[in-house]
Amino acid sequence: MKTTVRLTHSSVLFKDGKPFVSVLFEDGDKSAEGRIPECTISINKGFSEAEKAEFEEYMRENKTDIIDAAKKITGITHWMS
After folding, report:
1. Helix (H) / strand (E) containing 69
2. What is the spatial distance between Cα 30 and Cα 47, in angstroms, rounded to a whole number?
3. What is the DSSP letter of 39?
4. pLDDT at residue 7, rounded to an integer
């Protein structure tokens, strides 16, 4: 049975004056959180190392598109979706 991993992302956030986008991968009880531009998974709950590596590769390959989508999220848009 094939499952679908759900991906969600934040708007552009800032920490120590540096912009980033938080990316969340979810599949049932499993979740993994990463950041762009680093394209690394920092929190992994239940996914295998191979899956984690796939998510990091996905972030690297789609970084520009994810950042562009994150830039379109405004405060009100984020809360209404």
Report:
1. helix 49-71
2. 6
3. T
4. 95
Q: How many helices (H) and strands (E) does the chain have?
A: 2, 5
List the structure tokens of 68.
């562009």
SS3 category, 38:
coil
Q: Indicate the pTM of the whole model.
A: 0.85
Antiparallel, parallel or unpaired: β 13-15 and 6-9: unpaired
Q: In whole angstroms, give the CA distance from residue 60 to residue 16.
A: 23
- The arithmetic mean of pLDDT across residues 1-10, rounded, is 83
Quick one: pLDDT band at residue 73, thresholds 50, 70, 90?
confident
